[in-house]
Structure formats: structure tokens, C-alpha cells
């Protein structure tokens, strides 16, 4: 029983980490209808900027937690205003090609600036302790991640479903001309949401770095996991993304403990079964047409 509890807590913390890494991608697709394949790159940039801050500049994890997402937000703003905006009327294919190309550009730039060595960020002293639960000792940082994931999920659900901005954006997706006639600058709202997605990606990069580390191709591995979570939960659904993150986190953790060679197979198997049972995902909606 103690082993099961330990694996459950570890799986839950990993699931919340997956949610923090994926929620920005889910938000942008759910509200803007844009599948941002450069999301993993924004996460990677947040991680490397945090590394530079904690090793070269202030040596403060908390400063990195604030500054790195803001740096990624500026990059996201530039991408949306100069490149992505022109694709809104062209459909999903142009957006996929553009953002996937940007991912490779960021990959090469990151290697040029920070090199190809495996790097890491130390857990801040305030969160470096451990906590005893049910006779087991767990790192405090992992438990904090569980709380962070829950708070982020609640905030995004409230934004998407209970705010005036959420209503405006949903209406703008259906009829941009009507929203414009009401005097609402839907382009500004879309930009703000994409920048928020970038902030979440950068935040996820900082939070995940002490556990997952920094290494070459980290953005593509993160993107694959994020897409799996999105497909299982339902493209664009924050609640679905949260549910899928927990399922994938638990399955991956227990899979590595019971069947180490089959852990990824189990995750892809779960995705296949969900798609057969519910093609739109657990809590998904119909994909927005471009």
C-alpha cells in the first residue's frame, strides 16, 4: 500500500507538471483555434532564460520565475503581431507550417547561445525540503507543483468560461465582423490570449526545469507529450487537458514502475483507445474550422 501511495503522489505531481507545460497550448487552441507547434520552443526558451538568470545574473529562482515568462511573452507578442496574425484567415495548415518552422529556428538559436550540454536548475532553498505523508517522504517541490497545477487550472477555466473576455473571444471566433461592429478590438484580444499562452509556456519552463532539466531537443519531446495530452483531453478543452494530464501522469508513473519497457506504449495505447471511444477526446469540442 505504501508503494501505491508513493507512486500515486509521484504520478499526480508529474501529471500537474504536464498540465502546466500544456495549458498554454490548450488555451491558445481552445480560444484562438491556433495549434501552436512552437509552444515547446517557448517552454524551452523559458527554461534557458531561467538557467541564465539563476547561474549568471541574480542567482535567484524567484527572479527567474518572474523574468523568464515575461521574456517569453515578448517573443510571443512579436510572433503573433508580425507572423501569425496574417494566417488567421488562411486556415490551420498555414499556422501549423509557420509555427513548426519557428520551432526549428528557435532550436538552432538555442543551441547557438547555450550549447548542447545537459543543464539543470537547482530547486530553491525554500522548497528544497520534504514532507511526510501516509508514512512516506515526498519532496516538497513536487507537492507544490500539484498545488500550482490546480490553481492554474482553476484560473484558466474561470477565464475561458466565466469572464467577459471569454465570451467576447468565443463570439469573435464565430463572427469577427459582428464583434468589430460592437467596437471591440478582437485583434487586441487575440494578441493578449497568445501572449498569455506564451507566459504560461515560459512559466512551465521555469517550474519544470528543476525536475526535468534542460537538454537538446527538449522542446520536441515536450511538444509530443503536450499533443498527446491535448488529444486525450480534447483539443482546446482546459478541463479535458487537466483530466488527461492526470491520467497520463499516473499511467506513465505506474507504467515505469510495473512495466518500464512499455511505459510510452501504454500512453499511446490510452490515446488510441480514447480516440476510438471519443474521437473528439474526453471533454473535447468540435475543432474550429479555418
From TrEMBL:
Question: Which locations, inside or outside the cell, does it occupy?
Answer: Cell membrane
For this UniProt entry, what is the primary localization, expressed as one broad class? Answer: membrane
Keywords of this entry: Amino-acid transport, Cell membrane, Membrane, Transmembrane, Transmembrane helix, Transport
Q: Which domain of life is it from?
A: Bacteria
Answer yes or no on keyword Methyltransferase: no
Signal sequence annotation = none
Q: List the InterPro entries hit by this protein, alphabetically.
A: ABC_transp_permease, BCAA_transport_permease
- Transmembrane feature ranges: 12-39, 59-79, 86-106, 140-159, 179-203, 223-251, 258-277
Which Pfam families does the UniProt entry name for this protein? BPD_transp_2
What membrane topology term does the record carry? Multi-pass membrane protein
What family is it from?
Answer: Belongs to the binding-protein-dependent transport system permease family. LivHM subfamily.
Q: Which PANTHER family match?
A: ABC TRANSPORTER ATP-BINDING PROTEIN, BRANCHED-CHAIN AMINO ACID TRANSPORT SYSTEM PERMEASE PROTEIN LIVH
The molecule here is called: Branched-chain amino acid ABC transporter permease
Species name: Halobacillus naozhouensis
Amino acid at each position: 500500500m505504501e508503494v501505491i501511495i508513493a507512486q500515486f503522489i509521484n504520478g499526480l505531481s508529474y501529471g500537474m507538471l504536464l498540465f502546466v507545460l500544456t495549458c498554454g497550448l490548450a488555451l491558445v487552441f481552445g480560444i484562438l483555434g491556433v495549434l501552436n507547434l512552437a509552444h515547446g520552443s517557448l517552454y524551452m526558451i523559458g527554461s534557458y532564460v531561467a538557467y541564465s538568470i539563476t547561474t549568471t545574473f541574480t542567482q535567484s529562482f524567484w527572479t527567474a520565475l518572474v523574468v523568464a515568462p515575461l521574456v517569453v511573452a515578448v517573443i510571443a507578442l512579436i510572433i503573433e503581431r508580425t507572423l501569425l496574425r496574417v494566417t488567421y484567415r488562411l486556415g490551420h495548415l498555414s499556422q501549423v507550417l509557420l509555427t513548426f518552422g519557428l520551432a526549428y529556428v528557435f532550436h538552432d538559436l538555442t543551441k547557438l547561445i547555450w550549447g548542447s550540454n545537459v543543464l539543470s536548475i537547482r530547486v530553491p532553498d525554500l522548497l528544497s525540503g520534504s514532507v511526510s505523508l501516509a508514512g512516506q517522504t515526498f519532496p516538497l517541490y513536487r507537492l507544490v507543483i500539484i498545488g500550482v497545477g490546480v490553481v492554474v487550472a482553476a484560473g484558466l477555466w474561470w477565464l475561458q468560461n466565466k469572464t467577459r473576455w471569454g465570451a467576447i473571444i468565443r463570439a469573435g471566433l464565430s463572427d469577427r465582423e459582428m464583434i468589430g461592429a460592437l467596437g471591440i478590438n478582437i485583434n487586441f484580444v487575440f494578441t493578449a490570449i497568445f501572449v498569455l499562452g506564451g507566459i504560461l509556456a515560459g512559466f512551465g519552463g521555469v517550474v519544470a526545469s528543476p525536475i526535468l532539466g534542460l537538454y537538446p531537443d527538449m522542446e520536441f519531446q515536450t511538444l509530443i507529450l503536450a499533443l498527446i495530452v491535448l488529444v486525450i483531453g480534447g483539443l482546446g478543452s482546459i478541463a479535458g487537458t487537466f483530466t488527461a494530464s492526470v491520467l497520463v501522469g499516473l499511467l506513465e508513473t505506474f507504467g515505469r514502475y510495473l512495466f518500464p519497457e512499455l511505459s510510452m506504449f501504454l500512453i499511446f495505447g490510452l490515446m488510441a483507445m480514447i480516440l476510438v471511444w471519443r474521437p473528439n477526446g474526453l471533454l473535447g469540442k468540435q475543432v474550429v474550422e479555418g
